[in-house]
Amino acid sequence: MLMLVGLVLCLTPTDALTAFPPKFVLGSLNEDVVVKCNTSKQQVTWTQNGELEPMAELVAKGQTLTILGLDLPATGNYSCWAGGVLLDTTYVVVRVTGEEEAKNVSCQADSYRGSFRCSWTGPRSAVFRARLMRSNGSFGDWVPVAGRGGQFNASFTDPSFCPFAEELHQLQLYLEGISDTSFFNFTSPRFFIRDIVRPDPPQKLTVQQQSEQLRLTWAPPASWPLPRSYFALLYRLQYELSNGTQVEKFVEGAEETIVEEHMRRVRISCQDPYAKPSWSSWSPWQVVDAAQQHRLRAH
Ligand SMILES: *[C@@H]1O[C@H](CO)[C@@H](O)[C@H](O)[C@H]1NC(C)=O
Ligand SMILES: *[C@@H]1O[C@H](CO)[C@@H](O)[C@H](O)[C@H]1NC(C)=O
Ligand SMILES: *[C@@H]1O[C@H](CO)[C@@H](O)[C@H](O)[C@H]1NC(C)=O
Ligand SMILES: *[C@@H]1O[C@H](CO)[C@@H](O)[C@H](O)[C@H]1NC(C)=O
Ligand SMILES: *[C@@H]1O[C@H](CO)[C@@H](O)[C@H](O)[C@H]1NC(C)=O
Ligand SMILES: *[C@@H]1O[C@H](CO)[C@@H](O)[C@H](O)[C@H]1NC(C)=O
Ligand SMILES: *[C@@H]1O[C@H](CO)[C@@H](O)[C@H](O)[C@H]1NC(C)=O
Fold this sequence. Notes:
Blueprint: H1 2-11, E1 24-27, E2 33-36, E3 45-48, E4 58-61, E5 64-67, E6 76-82, E7 85-95, E8 103-108, E9 115-121, E10 127-134, E11 143-144, E12 146-148, E13 151-157, E14 171-179, E15 182-187, E16 203-210, E17 213-219, E18 234-241, E19 246-252, E20 256-259, E21 263-271, E22 286-287, H2 290-298
Parallel strand pairs: 1-7, 7-15
Antiparallel strand pairs: 2-5, 3-6, 4-5, 6-7, 8-9, 9-13, 10-11, 10-14, 12-13, 14-15, 16-17, 17-20, 18-19, 18-21, 21-22
Bound molecules: 2-acetamido-2-deoxy-beta-D-glucopyranose (7 copies).
């Protein structure tokens, strides 16, 4: 029991990471790791996790520090100093292989603008950075990752994306994470942006009475690209009759329809008819005016 407590204390770094460290070195357990201080100073002193007396066996020589036989207590923040001035910081972590430390990666775009968001789950203590890889081998810039409670997400823009042209190269999300003392990386399955488009819900759904009928009108989601003739949408209306029966009606390429029956409430979602089917979430229910219902029923 005492041994377990001791182990946990040693494994917990003095400063938990709050952001992905800009400079890090990967090491393997029981092997030597070399850390370099990026400075022109000839002599530097080192701290590990803010301590002058590191929990590691070290050899310092000029601007170089060698960690002999890396173990978990020897990981963390190595900073070099000259006369109380911080010169450089390197984070030393152990590379983990085999385990999948990032799971359930899913990416979604609300439009054909080349921007999208990806989310995934990982260890609660992890910090991540992410970037895109194209199937022709080019890389995007690193983007920061937001995360809390083991849920992470990041936003991307593919600057070469053109909504009017066929996408040539598939994308892949590349993730690097550091959790406590270990480093891991992960690549998502490949995808085209056109295959992850899920529109926002349509907006401005209104119901007007027109003699004995109801005229429903709406607008495409604000994030949906123009022109409408090119970026057509398939709409799905769902309405509830006064006896409780739910009815669905599909409308393609138009933003209005006429309904003969009287209804209590109605909502709408949409889908890109040419992409893989992924319906938007529903708009909020639109309650049909009681007076309208009454007048309709009187007919
Ligand atoms: C490492 O330690 C230095 C000096 O204490 C500090 O300025 C820096 O923010 C730390 N870096 C990380 C990634 O914890
Ligand atoms: C070293 O520091 C210089 C100046 O701050 C910087 O331009 C350079 O990229 C650094 N090199 C490395 C390997 O960090
Ligand atoms: C990940 O997805 C699988 C199914 O694809 C699901 O069973 C599991 O609960 C998900 N895990 C998390 C942490 O969301
Ligand atoms: C990969 O394709 C993108 C556009 O899809 C282009 O901008 C980039 O230059 C290409 N890179 C290579 C290495 O071919
Ligand atoms: C992204 O992560 C942040 C931080 O956990 C969270 O507040 C936000 O709601 C997430 N966004 C999405 C779209 O999941
Ligand atoms: C992880 O990074 C190493 C190089 O640092 C690379 O060889 C390996 O392919 C990466 N793994 C994945 C899943 O991308
Ligand atoms: C509800 O009304 C519709 C049309 O008036 C009718 O077709 C349907 O059978 C009714 N459903 C029930 C459960 O009464």
